[in-house]
Amino acid sequence: SSRFCSSHQPELLGSTPLASFGLVAMMLGRIAAASRLAARRSVAGTPVLRSPLVGASGAARGAAHVSAPKPLSIRMDSLFVKCVIAAVIYFVPQDAVFLTGLFWKWHNEASTISPKKKLSDAESALEDFKAKKGLDDVKVSKGRSTWYVTA
Fold this sequence. Notes:
Blueprint: H1 17-44, H2 79-113, H3 122-133, E1 139-142, E2 147-150
Antiparallel strand pairs: 1-2
């Protein structure tokens, strides 16, 4: 079967020169029509077939502009809410166990690197620290129970 309408090309199925001439004439006609459409489009500067949404300022067809999907209400018996509750019940306990272990590991590493020391005389400890490090001028920030030294 042919893709073209038989009323336009009655002799397409035959192999006569008239049939091939008709096919060539039809194709040249389509090319000419396409070039006329392209020329008209370039002269006018705007496309001939315009979408109703092109160049519309504001809402298209009177619809409200939505900047983000914002549900007006969420039912507590919806599938979304049930899935969120199930995910929280399933994942929070394992996350809590994992994060507790992770924080305990970090705390132990930090305590091993720089352990706390309770000193009775902070002034003499500061002078010993400055002598040990070879520092003369240091800035001391005195907190309630902790002193911070910066060079």
